[in-house]
């Protein structure tokens, strides 16, 4: 990769959004996420808070995270099943575009999907304060517990990156690299999915990030999840191309 400063510019609902605006959103979400899981808000600037909060969540262990958020997961599961049933297969999409100078699409997706790297678990949790658990099993099924968008509840779902058949968002041939899969409940009900697409550009790459929710999901949550996407993927991109 050429010696080039990495920059990330987001487009949310047709509006150009600076990296500083996305970082400000992250800073507002972090104290709420800490209260949600019953942890103290770390001190220091956002970078120090992000590191400390990720370390503390990881130190809890998966079982303790599930225990602390069990009530949320039960309640959000009821909501997800109800919205899915009443949406009759229709989906609403939350989309964010990132334009990156430096790096390339293939290298990023290879890094993002490499569950065997030593820093995988930490990088997944640190990317967004609303990430409480991201655990990928040997078969590739990924368990996620997070607060989607601005939701007051943490949700648990399982992403299968080997199955895109339930997705309604069509594959865009203009984006040759993708990370996509269905999101299911623990009982196997398809409640949504991810269709993240990437393509190289002259000085970097373009990421089109898309999440499918049940059609009747509140518009506010759909809108806020665009910021969630910008936050997590900007942090992941910076981590993927950081000098080591």
Topology, element by element:
Layout lengths: L6 E6 L2 E3 L1 H19 L8 H15 L1 H7 L1 H18 L3 E11 L3 H8 L7 H7 L4 E6 L5 E5 L8 E6 L16 E8 L5 E12 L2 E11 L4 H22 L4
Antiparallel strand pairs: 1-2, 1-3, 3-9, 4-5, 5-6, 6-7, 7-8, 8-9
Mean pLDDT: 95
Largest sheet: 9 strands, antiparallel
- Beta-strand content estimate: 25-35%
Which structural class do you get from the secondary structure elements?
alpha+beta
Radius of gyration: 17 Å
CATH architecture grouping? 2-Layer Sandwich
Oligomer: single chain
Q: In the CATH scheme, what's the topology name?
A: Alpha-D-Glucose-1,6-Bisphosphate, Chain A, domain 4
Separation, N- and C-terminal Cα atoms: 13 Å
Q: Going across the major beta sheet, what is the strand order? A: 2-1-3-9-8-7-6-5-4
Question: How do you describe this structure in short?
Answer:
Helices cover 39% and strands 28% of the residues.
């Amino acid at each position: 990769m050429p010696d080039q400063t990495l920059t990330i510019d987001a487009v949310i609902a047709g509006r150009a959004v600076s990296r500083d605006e996305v970082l400000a959103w992250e800073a507002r979400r972090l104290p709420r996420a800490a209260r949600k899981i019953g942890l103290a808000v770390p001190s220091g600037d956002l970078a120090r808070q992000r590191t400390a909060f990720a370390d503390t969540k990881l130190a809890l262990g998966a079982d303790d995270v599930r225990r602390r958020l069990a009530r949320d997961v039960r309640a959000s599961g009821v909501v997800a099943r109800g919205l899915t049933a009443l949406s009759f297969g229709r989906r609403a999409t939350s989309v964010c575009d990132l334009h990156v100078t430096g790096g390339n699409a293939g290298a990023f997706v290879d890094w993002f999907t490499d569950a065997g790297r030593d820093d995988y678990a930490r990088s997944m949790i640190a990317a967004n304060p609303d990430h409480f658990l991201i655990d990928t099993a040997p078969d590739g099924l990924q368990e996620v517990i997070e607060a989607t968008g601005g939701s007051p509840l943490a949700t648990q779902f399982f992403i299968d990156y080997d199955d895109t058949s339930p997705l309604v968002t069509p594959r865009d041939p203009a984006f040759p690299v993708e990370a996509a899969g269905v999101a299911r409940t623990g009982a196997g009900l398809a409640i949504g999915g991810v269709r993240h697409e990437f393509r190289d550009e002259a000085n970097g790459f373009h990421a089109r990030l898309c999440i499918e929710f049940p059609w009747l999901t509140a518009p506010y949550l759909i809108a806020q999840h665009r910021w969630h996407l910008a936050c997590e993927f900007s942090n992941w991109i910076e981590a993927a191309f950081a000098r080591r």
